[in-house]
Write a structure and sequence with these properties.
Blueprint: H1 3-28, H2 35-38, H3 55-63, E1 64-67, E2 71-74, E3 101-107, H4 109-112, H5 119-129, E4 134-138, H6 146-160, E5 164-168, H7 190-200, H8 203-218, H9 229-233, H10 242-258, E6 262-266, H11 279-283, H12 294-312, E7 315-317, H13 319-325, H14 343-359
Parallel strand pairs: 3-4, 3-5, 5-6, 6-7
Antiparallel strand pairs: 1-2
Length: about 375
């Protein structure tokens, strides 16, 4: 080996040694920064959050990964997700069993979370008790909006072969965008995203990302450190503006029908009041200070769900109206944040959806796909 090549090899080895030492040092120090999906939503959940929502901070690094189309998605096969990336301890069979009626539940943390079980699990139990050979596929992902639900259905609906598609969005859509509306994030290529996934596991890459733009993104650019995020947020667009929300709902209805499934739309119950907005929504800039109250904004999104259901002839579960009409205005059905369901709320939601499906005539005829496979 010639001397120039030796010098190159020695230099490369020295660089690798330094980089390896830096990587090891960062790991020993416990440094971690996840670039995606912090820039959209999750990165600001750093404390002062209701216990049930700590799931984002504690579980996101191992449970979700980048996705060129969906922005982030579950890590398939990583509990509580099965190999199809659904929140389920059981795997999907290669071929959908004859006579099985599948309900695909699309949504956010209100559908993903649940103690002791999320409402889709309780729905399956209710339908089974009523004599259906039912299987409810929980495809909800925390912090997703109707845009991601639409893209998921369009890209994977045929594979999952649902007979009913239940759509429950209406919270994250009207949170203020921390960087820009979801639809403005470019759809990437799987190859580039795969490289980014690999690099993002390296602490050096995480540190470089943090130093170059992570601090700015985590603060919600162009907000300066210490600035009132709620005041700044009032001037920002929603993650999914109301017209786009309506269009996403219509697209999911259309796609469900193309796949031979019955669409079912759900309005999101709310316990938010002007004097009862969770602190974390304000401090992280999801809700703006001043302007239209968040409860009024939410009511407009819920009314849009009703309107789309009427226009498209879809099944409607008006859970927002039902919860509000419950004794005590639904007190006890929603957690302290006024957003997520309590155990009693989960039972009520499962009952409402089950009643809508059992009352619909005729009952869904199971679709027969070629196969069911993980992504």
């Amino acid at each position: 080996m010639t001397r120039p090549w030796r010098r190159v090899l020695f230099s490369a080895a020295a660089v690798l040694l330094v980089l390896g030492a830096a990587e090891g040092g960062l790991r020993l120090a416990g440094f971690h920064f996840q670039p995606i999906p912090e820039q959209i939503w999750l990165g600001r959940l750093k404390g002062g959050i209701p216990t049930a929502e700590v799931v984002f901070d504690r579980l996101v690094p191992g449970l979700f990964t980048r996705d060129p189309l969906l922005l982030w998605r579950p890590v398939a096969g990583q509990p509580p997700f099965n190999r199809a990336g659904l929140r389920d301890s059981e795997e999907l069979p290669e071929v959908k069993p004859p006579g099985e009626v599948r309900i695909l539940a699309l949504g956010d943390s209100c559908t993903f979370l649940g103690e002791p079980l999320p409402w889709p699990d309780r729905l399956e139990q209710r339908l089974t008790a009523a004599g259906w050979r039912a299987r409810v596929l929980n495809a909800a992902v925390p912090a997703w909006t109707s845009l991601q639900g639409r893209r998921f259905l369009e890209s994977r609906g045929a594979e999952l072969a649902p007979d009913v598609v239940a759509v429950y969005f209406g919270w994250n859509d009207h949170w203020r965008a921390t960087v820009k509306p979801d639809a403005e994030f470019a759809v990437g290529s799987e190859g580039v995203t795969a490289v980014q996934r690999g690099l993002s596991r390296l602490r050096l890459y995480q540190a470089l990302h943090y130093l170059l733009k992570g601090r700015r993104e985590a603060a919600g650019a162009p907000v300066a450190e210490g600035e009132d995020l709620a005041a700044v947020a009032a001037a920002r667009p929603f993650r999914v503006p109301l017209p786009a929300f309506a269009e996403n709902l219509r697209a999911m209805v259309d796609r469900a029908r193309q796949e031979g499934a019955r669409p079912l739309l759900i309005t999101a119950p709310s316990g938010l009041r002007a004097e009862r907005v969770p602190t974390y929504l304000m401090t992280h800039g999801f809700v703006g200070r001043g302007g239209e109250p968040v409860e009024s904004i939410h009511a407009r999104y819920a009314e849009t769900v009703r309107q789309v259901a009427r226009e498209t002839g879809s099944l409607l579960v008006d859970a927002a109206a039902d919860f509000a009409a419950a004794p005590g205005g639904g007190e006890g059905l929603l957690r302290d944040d006024g957003i997520h369901l309590t155990a009693a709320g989960i039972e009520r939601m499962a009952g409402l959806v089950a009643e809508a499906l059992l009352s619909a005539q005729p009952a869904p005829s199971p679709s027969i796909p070629a196969s069911s496979s993980s992504r």
